[in-house]
Write a structure and sequence with these properties.
Elements: E1 3-13, H1 19-29, E2 36-42, E3 45-51, H2 55-64, E4 69-81, H3 86-96, E5 101-110, E6 113-120
Antiparallel strand pairs: 1-3, 1-4, 2-3, 4-6, 5-6
């Protein structure tokens, strides 16, 4: 398994703009692939979380279409073979080694393969939300 720094794009999804499918179609229409994607919600609504090898281009396409985006550093682990419980053990070990994890998620790329995205408090020191 490899670990590398990446940039995650958080895309705010207002209900008036057609939802997640529209965002993903917009990215695909511009031939911009994503490495990982996940969806979550906060007190302000839904967020689509993306990592891609071309974060500046993806962000520009989405912002031109009217979406509000923020970017920030994360650590991308994988690809790795999906094994139930393996990620929980890995994250527990990172915690025991003093790595403060703000959030993490698993993104499946194939039935038996996945990536893990981890944001740590250490990553926030190099915030890219401009």
């Amino acid at each position: 398994m490899t670990a590398r720094p990446e940039v995650e794009i958080q895309v705010r999804i207002p209900s008036s703009q057609g939802g997640l499918t529209k965002v993903l179609a917009l990215v695909a229409d511009h031939q911009l692939s994503t490495v990982t994607r996940s969806c979550c919600a906060d007190r302000e609504g839904r967020l689509l979380l993306l990592t891609t090898s071309r974060p500046a281009e993806v962000r520009q396409v989405l912002e031109t279409a009217g979406y509000v985006c923020q970017t920030h550093p994360v650590v991308l682990l994988g690809p790795m073979t999906y094994r139930p419980g393996a990620v929980a053990r890995l994250l527990a070990e990172l915690g025991q080694q003093g790595v403060n994890i703000r959030y993490s998620y698993l993104s499946s790329t194939a039935p038996d393969e996945c990536f893990v995205v981890v944001e740590t408090t250490n990553d926030r020191s190099e915030e890219h939300t401009s």
